[in-house]
Specification:
Elements: E1 3-7, H1 14-26, E2 31-34, H2 41-48, E3 54-57, H3 60-65, H4 68-74, E4 78-81, E5 84-89, E6 92-97, H5 100-109, E7 116-119, E8 126-130, E9 133-137, E10 149-154, E11 160-164
Parallel strand pairs: 1-2, 2-3, 3-4, 6-7, 7-9
Antiparallel strand pairs: 1-10, 5-6, 8-9, 10-11
Helix pairs in contact: 1-2
């Protein structure tokens, strides 16, 4: 069984990112997708050190503070896309962006192509079926507006488990 960790909206909260990385390693996750708003080079570097394949897009804060050119020249272990990423993992076609509108538009324009669509930006954990595609927001690691969370998805069943960071010591 392959596992995918989905993280978003870290907003430079290095202690919560450290907790997240601890769970990712403990759970022996196979892949990580980050849907943006990491915010600091320190946190991007923490992600860059992970040993599994990492895919990421920039959020609005990342574009404003660091920019795609700077980040892509430094982060050699992260498959980075500026606004929209697409990958096939565990026989699942996955699309991801920071923004819910971008992934919804991509689903509508490519009906039946994606089994999983991921986004961040709202900070609120959410899961729904959108035009026969599982649409998921893993919440936010940064602890803004909603309690800090991320998700681990079983890539065979697409069943997601929400990880509540406040419950981790």
């Amino acid at each position: 069984m392959s596992k995918l960790a989905v993280i978003s909206d870290i907003h430079d909260n290095a202690p919560n990112l450290e907790k997240t990385i601890g769970v990712i390693n403990k759970e022996q996750v196979d892949y990580v997708i980050c849907t943006g708003d990491v915010q600091s080079m320190e946190c991007w570097q923490m992600l860059n050190k992970l040993s599994m394949p990492i895919y990421a897009v920039l959020g609005n804060v990342d574009h404003d503070i660091l920019g795609y050119e700077q980040l892509s020249s430094v982060l050699k272990n992260i498959n980075l896309s500026p606004d929209l990423g697409e990958v096939e993992l565990g026989n699942q076609k996955i699309i991801f962006s920071h923004y819910p509108d971008i992934v919804k538009r991509a689903i509508i324009n490519n009906l039946g192509k994606y089994s999983l669509a991921l986004h961040g930006h709202t900070h609120k954990p959410w899961e729904e079926n959108f035009n026969n595609t599982k649409l998921l927001n893993s919440g936010n690691v940064g602890n803004f507006r909603f309690s800090p969370t991320f998700a681990i998805i079983n890539l065979e069943t697409l069943k997601a488990k929400l990880i509540l960071l406040d419950e981790i010591q």
